[in-house]
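[step 3/7] inverse_fold.run input=structure_tokens len=283
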């Protein structure tokens, strides 16, 4: 796929989702309300520490019975905003199906770099499989997913040498990148780069499309149909680059009538195509 000609103005239109969705605060409020309800309804263990960073903790939601698997979710916010607490709502449909759900937090830019955040998520995922069972998680049937920056971080887990982290192979059986950024090059010209501090060297090292997956676990590539042209292109880009793992097989899943902030709310619906496709990745 041919990349467009980037100017700061083009990048701002393509990547500033808050500007593209003027009522985005309404969706943040819906996330918060649904997350508060999930914390009041489901068994949970909050702020379990997986690493040394101030925000390197996770929240674990548990079914009443022994879990059949674990869904690990990484939140978005352009690596610079938001929190796991904003995303507890993803737990409900999976806990109802007898799964544990771990929602990972991480330190944010500009206090740390994107590279640091990628390593933190690797620590978090390794913790889930090593220490999670002691807290009620299932380490043998893990699906990892994330939204926006979390989609990028999920894809980076697919091109990780897990042996360097003391594991025999990838600690998951499938993954989901929802509205992910898979080529970070345009972000050098983005206004948010005042916090991200990306240069062309780091974007090359942190762009999943520049690597080959180190696992054959299936990866669901999804995006809201009403997102900006650049987010649609970013999903197509990874789908074309990674034929060995991509799901669906024919094209990315473009979820009808959803934009960048509404699409993730499909994880609050047990009957949504996104939830059902994610459940389908579990063994």
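[step 3/7] decode complete -> sequence:
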């Amino acid at each position: 796929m041919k990349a467009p000609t980037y100017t700061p103005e083009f990048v701002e239109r393509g990547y500033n989702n808050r500007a593209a969705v003027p009522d985005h605060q309404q969706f943040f409020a819906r996330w918060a309300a649904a997350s508060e309800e999930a914390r009041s309804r489901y068994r949970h263990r909050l702020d379990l520490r997986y690493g040394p960073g101030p925000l390197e903790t996770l929240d674990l939601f548990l079914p009443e019975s022994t879990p059949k698997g674990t869904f690990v979710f990484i939140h978005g916010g352009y690596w610079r905003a938001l929190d796991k607490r904003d995303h507890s709502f993803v737990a409900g449909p999976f806990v109802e199906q007898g799964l544990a759900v771990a929602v990972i937090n991480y330190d944010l830019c500009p206090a740390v770099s994107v590279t640091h955040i990628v390593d933190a998520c690797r620590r978090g995922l390794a913790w889930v499989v090593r220490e999670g069972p002691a807290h009620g998680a299932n380490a043998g049937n893990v699906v990892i997913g994330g939204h926006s920056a979390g989609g990028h971080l999920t894809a980076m887990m697919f091109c990780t040498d897990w042996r360097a982290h003391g594991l025999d192979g990838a600690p998951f059986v499938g993954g989901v990148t929802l509205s992910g950024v898979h080529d970070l090059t345009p972000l050098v010209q983005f206004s948010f780069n005042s916090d991200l501090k990306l240069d062309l060297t780091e974007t090359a090292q942190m762009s999943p499309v520049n690597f080959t997956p180190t696992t054959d676990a299936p990866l669901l590539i999804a995006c809201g149909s009403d997102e900006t042209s650049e987010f649609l292109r970013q999903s197509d880009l990874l789908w074309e680059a990674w034929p060995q793992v991509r799901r669906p097989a024919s094209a990315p899943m473009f979820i009808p009538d959803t934009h960048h902030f509404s699409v993730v709310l499909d994880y609050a619906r047990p009957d949504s195509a996104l939830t059902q496709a994610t459940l389908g990745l579990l063994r």
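[step 4/7] annotate
The first strand starts at residue 43 and ends at 49.
The mean pLDDT is 97.
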